[in-house]
Design a protein that fits this description.
It is built from eight helices and four strands. By secondary structure, it is mostly helical. It has one domain (about 1-145). Strands 1-2 form a two-stranded antiparallel ribbon. A two-stranded antiparallel ribbon has the order 3-4. Strand 1 and strand 2 form a beta hairpin. The relative contact order is 0.17.
Amino acid sequence: MEKMIFIITNDYFKNIFEELKYRADNFGPYSDKLNDQIENLIDLKLIEKKKGEHAELADEFNASYNYRMSIPDKYSLTIFGEALAKDIFGKLNEESKNQIVITKNKFNSMPLDGLLSFVYNSAPPEYLEKSKIKERYIRKSMETF
């Protein structure tokens, strides 16, 4: 979710992008402010966070082999979050609505590797400086996704 928000705000909502104060981190662009906002939305019961598919297997593997395999969490709107999102979305101009829908449709069904490859090949270099995984994604062609 964070990488998709990075793409949408960087491409279409520069004022929000600047407010989120992204910085280079171990896994690419990261925003403490966005992470705090996501936690607030969870606390307010507007979104829910679930362990990603096969997370339990990854936990077992990590414990057995002293390894750190990460399975991303899944986020979804609650019924209250859906109502609020519809209200906010309805107030946007048509161009903003179209940009969000196009971006969401493009990336929502994309495998995580594809999304990360897109971010790593399109993000400004200053957001990738500290990344531990950039070589894996910068070289990967988007055509494989």
